[in-house]
Structures are given as structure tokens and as C-alpha cells.
Amino acid sequence: MYAIINSGGRQVRVEPGSVLTVDHRTEPTGDTITFEHVLFVEQEGGGFVAGTPYVAGGRVTGVVDDQVLGP
């Protein structure tokens, strides 16, 4: 199972247990983060749901591991 979300103006593929680097988030380390701009969801068994532009009721949640500042 995987989903494609929109975060920071980019489309990112996410799966359970994946680690991402996303831009422009202010949540502190350890907080739960929710992405509500879900574009596509592939379900177990091969089915899928595509949004127009977003999947209705679609959410992806995760935990902030670290904050990194660029140069």
C-alpha cells in the first residue's frame, strides 16, 4: 500500500514505515504530522483511488523525527 501526497509544492510517494524529507514544516520533533493533500492511494489487493485533485477524506500521518536547516 502506498500514497502520493502533496507537501511543500512537491509530490511525494509514501509507504508505511518510510522516512521523508519535506520542506517548510514547523512542527517540533516528536509531534504527529498530518498530510491532508492526498493525490493517489494504492490499496492492498491492487485497487486504487485517484483524487480530483485530492482524495476525499484522505489523510497520511507520521511523526517528526528531526528538524534540519539548510545552508
Describe the overall structure.
This protein has strands at 2-7, 10-14, 32-35, 38-42, 48-50, 60-63. It starts with a strand and ends in an 8-residue tail after the last strand. Helix content is 0%, strand content 38%. It has no helices and six strands. It is elongated and about 40 Å long. Strand 4 and strand 5 (48-50) form a beta hairpin. The strands form two sheets. The chain has a four-stranded antiparallel beta sheet with strand order 2-1-4-5, with no helix packed on it. Strands 3-6 form a two-stranded antiparallel ribbon. It has 71 residues and is an all-beta fold.
How would you sum up this structure in a few lines?
This protein is mainly β and 71 residues long. It has no helices and six strands. Strand 4 and strand 5 form a beta hairpin.
Mean pLDDT: 91
Calculate the terminal CA-CA distance, rounded to whole Å: 35 Å
Secondary-structure content class? mainly beta
Spell the H/E element sequence. Answer: EEEEEE
Number of helices: 0
Rg calculated over all Cα atoms:
13 Å
- How much of the sequence lies in strands comes to 35-45%
Low-confidence stretches: none
- Give the beta-strand count: 6
Query: Can you list the strand order of the major beta sheet?
Result: 2-1-4-5
The geometry reads as elongated
